[in-house]
Amino acid sequence: MKKNKNALKKMSETLPTLESTDDVVVYALDETSVSVESNNRLSWSPLGHPHVLQKNASHDGVNIIGATEILKGSHAVVDVYNSEKTITSVETIYFLKYLISINPDKMVYVIWDNAKFHTSKAVREFLQFKDEEISVIYLPRYSPYMNPQENIWNWLKSNLYKPAARKSIDELISDISDIFSELNSNQGRIYSLSYASKFLV
């Protein structure tokens, strides 16, 4: 774990240099899940007139793997799966391959936690095979506050909120797609949510 902390410190110290180069990208990566059900959130209402949240008694939803470029805040990418599909090493490697493919001739760095499918033998072997194209830095255990992707998830879920339950997974996926399209059209917002120097301390 000390090695990982040292790697984070070194990256933090070299951020000014990295920001001025065009051959390096740094992503924060994480996973989350979202239900088609409406979420309970803080709100206000007149005394004696509480809000009513619609429920459809559905346990359907999606699992999402996502990453945000945190060096220049240029873009966020996600892969969305039906909640019946668990994210495993297979989906993780597929996603890492995608990050490599959209960054030709660049070194890809990924900051993530110690989830089992991040540390599996298959993932480690893939990273070793692709070590000239991609490298990962593991966050200290139990440190979600150090992962900028958590801010992206919070932003997603706040924008997904509505009092009426969604009718289907397709509707949920469509809303997620629209939200990320809007986010990727606003680089300033990505930057404010995920800028690396606020987290790599």
Automatic annotation (TrEMBL):
NCBIfam families: transpos_IS630
PANTHER family, sorted: TRANSPOSASE
Annotated protein name in UniProt: IS630 family transposase
One Pfam family recorded for the sequence: DDE_3
Annotated ranges, domain Tc1-like transposase DDE: 26-172
Superkingdom to which the source organism belongs: Bacteria
Ranges in coiled-coil conformation: none
A single GO molecular function term of this UniProt record: nucleic acid binding
